[in-house]
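Why should sequence recovery work at all? Because a backbone constrains its sequence more than one might expect. Tight turns favour small or flexible residues, buried strands favour hydrophobic ones, and helices have their own preferences. The token representation captures these environments compactly. In the example below, the structure is given first.
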């Protein structure tokens, strides 16, 4: 027991007796931590799809089997349906279902056995051609609306050919069919498919080309995952429709084609419009055209009647124009006479106003001569009065002139800033002062400050 990896010491079991639930939980934890996610291959058996969406099955080989479960969220993204007897490769988590003590595998993803390498090769080629712009949507050619001849690249023994021919015969029996037979699976099929597409392109006898085959496994469809086929489709000047496999099958040829159809039958439906629908559309257009023509004729008939009612003989039109001209001449003459009369009346009124407004120069001259002596007398009187006032103002101003005060022996003292000194206390000993006299100025320095404001004797 001491050498077993599942010993009590390794599982960290408590020394006391433990319940089954704890044992199963410890066993599950050890399994999940000891085994990383890994790929397991085997044959599907005992498959059950539960109503919950979970999938239960067993994986077995010649010597053993193991229970597996794929939960609903994983099963929904699988992309294909598991069947009993399938050989698959599953990415699993090794675990234990505690409630029943069942050893099982939780399946995270699954792929058909042997498909993994092919799918990886498919992804590598798809990425390479995508980088080169082989799948660029801007380079896709539009399909012709009304093809006259349709080419088909497929096997003569393919069921897809019968489906396409049946569909085209039903939808567009008037369209000619050109077959470019080629194997669609097996060794060398890809090269022959690419050669058939190039041959159709060189012969230029078709308006659109269908490349098709029925459904199958990824190995069956592998000829259409060939780089040569993709490049032949891309280089083809004829629009190419791919109808390969079922709706869930995607090949490199589908990405390179100008239009992908989910099935060969759908490819035929895309290639040629249905004759019955075209006939119905043509009948609708014919009816619409007839109604538009009838409506246009009715409108033009009404317009013709209206124009006929307005149509007059040229002589009648000339007579009307002559009468209109005479009336206009009469109105012009009347207007000129009225305008002349109005002008003369206005001129007469202005003449009267001018005569009334013209001044009497003789009378006004006599009045000016009479007022002139009075004006001179008043002027002399005013001049004498203003001269006397000016003299009085000059005398008053002389008394107030500071220069006159200085002439009587007074002086003005200013400090270093040029301000007049009115109080001895505003100065300090040794302050610079300026003494302004009637004539000139004295610059001095304060020696002593006496606060008494009385004037001493000389």
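From this structural description, the recovered sequence reads:
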């Amino acid at each position: 027991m001491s050498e077993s990896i599942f010993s009590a010491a390794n599982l960290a079991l408590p020394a006391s007796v433990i319940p089954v639930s704890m044992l199963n939980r410890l066993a599950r934890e050890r399994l999940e931590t000891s085994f990383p996610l890994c790929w397991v291959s085997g044959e599907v058996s005992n498959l059950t799809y539960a109503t919950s969406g979970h999938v239960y099955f067993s994986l077995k080989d010649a010597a053993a089997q193991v229970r597996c479960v794929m939960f609903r969220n994983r099963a929904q993204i699988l992309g294909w349906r598991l069947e009993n007897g399938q050989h698959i490769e599953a990415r699993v988590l090794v675990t234990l279902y505690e409630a029943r003590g069942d050893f099982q595998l939780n399946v995270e993803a699954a792929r058909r056995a042997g498909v993994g390498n092919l799918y990886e090769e498919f992804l590598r080629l798809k990425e390479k051609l995508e980088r080169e712009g082989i799948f660029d949507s801007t380079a896709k050619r539009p399909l012709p609306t009304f093809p006259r001849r349709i080419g088909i690249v497929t096997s003569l023994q393919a069921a897809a050919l019968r489906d396409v021919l049946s569909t085209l015969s039903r939808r567009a029996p008037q369209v000619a069919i050109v077959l470019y037979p080629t194997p669609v699976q097996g060794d060398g099929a890809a090269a022959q498919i690419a050669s058939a597409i190039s041959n159709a392109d060189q012969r230029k006898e078709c308006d659109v080309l269908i490349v098709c085959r029925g459904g199958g496994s990824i190995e069956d469809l592998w000829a259409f995952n060939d780089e040569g086929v993709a490049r032949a489709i891309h280089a083809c000047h004829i629009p190419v429709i791919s109808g390969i496999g079922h709706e869930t099958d995607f090949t490199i040829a589908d990405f390179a084609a100008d239009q992908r159809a989910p099935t060969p039958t759908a490819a035929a439906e895309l290639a040629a419009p249905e004759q019955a629908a075209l006939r119905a559309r043509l009948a609708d257009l014919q009816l619409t055209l007839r109604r538009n023509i009838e409506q246009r004729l009715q409108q033009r008939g009404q317009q013709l009647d209206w124009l006929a009612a307005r149509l007059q003989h040229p002589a009648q039109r000339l007579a009307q124009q002559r009468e209109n001209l005479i009336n206009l001449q009469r109105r012009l003459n009347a207007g000129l006479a009225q305008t002349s009369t109005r002008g003369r009346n206005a001129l007469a009124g202005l003449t009267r106003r001018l005569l009334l407004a013209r001044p009497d120069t003789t009378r006004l001259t006599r009045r000016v001569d009479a007022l002139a002596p009075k004006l001179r007398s008043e002027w002399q009187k005013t001049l004498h009065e203003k001269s006397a006032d000016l003299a009085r103002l000059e005398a008053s101003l002389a008394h107030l002139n500071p220069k006159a005060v200085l002439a009587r022996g007074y002086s003005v003292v200013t400090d270093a800033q040029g301000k007049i000194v009115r109080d001895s206390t505003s100065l300090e000993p040794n302050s610079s002062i300026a003494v302004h006299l009637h004539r000139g100025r004295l610059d001095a320095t304060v020696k002593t400050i006496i606060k008494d404001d009385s004037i001493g004797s000389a």
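A few observations help interpret the result. The chain has a mean pLDDT of 85.
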